[in-house]
Amino acid sequence: xxxxxxxxxxxxxxxxxxxxxxxxxxxxxxxxxxxxxxxxxxxxxxxxxxxxxxxxxxxxxxxxxxxxxxxxxxxxxxxxxxxxxxxxxxxxxxxxxxxxxxxxxxxxxxxxxxxxxxxxxxxxxxxxxxxxxxxxxxxxxxxxxxxxxxxxxxxxxxxxxxxxxxxxxxxxxxxxxxxxxxxxxxxxxxxxxxxxxxxxxxxxxxxxxxxxxxxxxxxxxxxxxxxxxxxxxxxxxxxxxxxxxxxxxxxxxxxxxxxxxxxxxxxxxxxxxxxxxxxxxxxxxxxxxxxxxxxxxxxxxxxxxxxxxxxxxxxxxxxxxxxxxxxxxxxxxxxxxxxxxxxxxxxxxxxxxxxxxxxxxxxxxxxxxxxxxxxxxxxxxxxxxxxxxxxxxxxxxxxxxxxxxxxxxxxxxxxxxxxxxxxxxxxxxxxxxxxxxxxxxxxxxxxxxxxxxxxxxxxxxxxxxxxxxxxxxxxxxxxxxxxxxxxxxxxxxxxxxxxxxxxxxxxxxxxxxxxxxxxxxxxxxxxxxxxxxxxxxxxxxxxxxxxxxxxxxxxxxxxxxxxxxxxxxxxxxxxxxxxxxxxx
Length: 584
Prior knowledge:
Layout: E1 7-18, E2 21-32, E3 36-40, H1 47-54, E4 62-67, E5 74-77, H2 89-98, H3 107-113, H4 118-121, H5 130-142, E6 148-152, H6 160-172, E7 176-180, H7 184-190, E8 193-198, E9 201-206, H8 209-257, H9 264-292, E10 316-326, E11 330-340, E12 344-348, H10 355-362, E13 370-375, E14 381-384, H11 397-402, H12 410-422, H13 439-452, E15 457-461, H14 469-481, E16 486-489, H15 493-499, E17 502-507, E18 510-514, H16 518-529, H17 539-558, H18 564-582
Parallel strand pairs: 3-7, 3-8, 5-6, 6-7, 12-16, 12-17, 14-15, 15-16
Antiparallel strand pairs: 1-2, 1-4, 8-9, 10-11, 10-13, 17-18
Helix pairs in contact: 2-5, 8-9, 17-18
């Protein structure tokens, strides 16, 4: 990102409060033209609220938003698209195009380049898949040619292919971008700067999400070093005070012994007073140091060897041979795989490929159409689905956690409290009713109950959904240390890389097993999607190039030839058109 880019908008000491409840205050930052910035923070920090303020949908309680362009065009993509669900998807795009004179005439062709088929666009918006809704919503908003595009969790509902498409779209977007996302791999690829939102303002970090994490870790280490040095100085001062007080006491005693020698008494007593006075000065200094001392940096203990599920002797829990499932079409067939004790299996596939159906088959809810499924007699499956409906809303967090234990010894209660801490429940949270928890808190509590229960295979359907980045990273640590058996679905690539030891991928109506985990699966997928060794673009790359070419064509039509931006736009347009012609 060039430091010479012009400032687009300045946020100055912004604050939001609802009645007596303050969300944040003192928020100040700027965004430059054509800059890609990520906004991160805990759930409830006010990220969505801040985006809505920038979009003009909410008024701040204090502070101001200052624009440096006339009539700025701001497009806001909410977490859940707010379009009329009954309106055909294509009409949403037409309405957006109607407000932009430079919108392409061939909207159907434009939609095809975005991977949207005519049959899908003729359906009501509410009937589209989550990924299709995201594409329609983003296309409609980019047709307005916004100066600033605000994206709130745009990776929601997207499968791996959709995530790759979104990354390329963002990287080729020519306006300014402020994005909120819990997908760390996405942020690592697209963000040039990170804004961390807290209740008291914003902290800025240059670079990608990985750079942000490194800067946070370095800051924590510096804080630990400063705290340790300060504690050492306090200890040294306490020791000096102890010695000085001992010397003062000794001087007083010596003065008493020499009371018969009149000349010596005043000198000894004066020395004792000086020592006592110096000790009192150091005590006052010590008190000030303790008042001003840095708080102890909080670093959670590392989790190792977490094994709480039921044991068993059979090393293999599930074997599938020639497994297949068909409804109106084959979801998969001829699938052969196994689930062995200690496996951490990521179940991967496009939306609608049959991941949930396979989970239902494993749980015995659905029967396979063909093939054989063997389950160990000792198999006990615990399922965490996306709804999390099996918590007792009348129990507290602690009561709900303890309810799964067959016995409740003091040691068991201590173990549960330790796990609750690892799952980011502090002491105040233990007495909250389960019914009053947020969606993310309910998911954490449900997962904790599964870990504590006597299951030997945990099936987790999107366990990270609704969780902020900090919570995701903590649960990653918990599940990476868990020594039981897992099968899970997730679109979070950081989570997949860190936790999975094996991958089951639904590809081409069958299930392929990757015994090397996501580290084996990812490069193979990249090779299959990344084009050919001779530089020929893949279908996905060609689609993105054509989308970019259409955008450049529309931009050139609106920019005067004497405008400094015209030459750069034209050069990019000609280079892109040349590459497409070479590989027709």
